[in-house]
Amino acid sequence: MKPEKLAHVAGEMLRIAKDSPDARKAGNNFAASVLTVTELLENVLLPVKAINYGLGRAKEYMATKFGPELAEKTSGIPDEFLIEPKASVVGPALQSMAFTLDEKPLKDMYLSLIAAAMDGRDPDAAHPAFAEIIRQLSTPEAIALPAFLLADGVAVVEVRIQAPDGTEYFVPLQHLAETVDAAGRPFENERFPAWVDNWVRLGLVEVSYSKSLAEKDAYAWVESQVAYDNLLKNRPSDAEEGWTQTFVKGSLQTTAWGTAFAAATGLASLPDVQH
After folding, report:
1. Which fold has domain 144-263?
2. Sheet of strand 244-254: strand arrangement
3. Distance between start and end Cα atoms, the chain
4. How far apart are CA 91 and CA 109, in angstroms?
5. pLDDT tens for residues 45-75?
6. Residue 231 CB neighbour total at 10 angstroms
């Protein structure tokens, strides 16, 4: 089905839901009325290849949990500002959410996006592209992302192996950031540099190694990071003599697009999370 047809059908479904007897019984909270689209979701919003795998589970979720969970997300919106969300936002969000029922961080982001689209005070805050961005995140990324999007700049470094005269170098590791576990101990997150590349690709953050943070001790953590220490320990025995390991200070900054994404997907309302 073409995207424009999908958007039209999604809009029709939401209009049907709003006018149905079930919706009227639900009272003023339009979120509960979305429960009535379950029958239509089976054949329209689920991709064909996912029908045999996920249709039953998606149908059960839509019938039993979707309404209450969305109602919770919209609980902070006054009734008079609840509006029908744009199909261009809610269609792709519902479609992709069918694949994330077991991945709560991603599912919650879709629910928050739909809720943002239902807030008549600023309905355009829910950009149609945000559903696609969520679809291109992994669950571990979604868990880690708020700590970086909500920070006022994050210290990152580029590790270099440099020639004795300083004229040549190569980069074995980029986008190294301070990562600690719940007990405050450094640990190695091997996927983090790739995550940063993905966030840059999606326009959520910018990384610069010509700008650094001015705060005292902002980079004091570097040499205690496992990844940095491992590079020193594991240098091959035949490495060129006199070449040294060093690092260049950089910064990771959230873009305006990233800030808008965090607000529309509920990340901005999460409690502070450590890197």
Report:
1. Translation Initiation Factor IF3 (3.30.110)
2. 169-177, 154-162, 244-254, 205-208
3. 41
4. 14
5. 444 444 444 567 777 888 888 888 988 999 8
6. 16
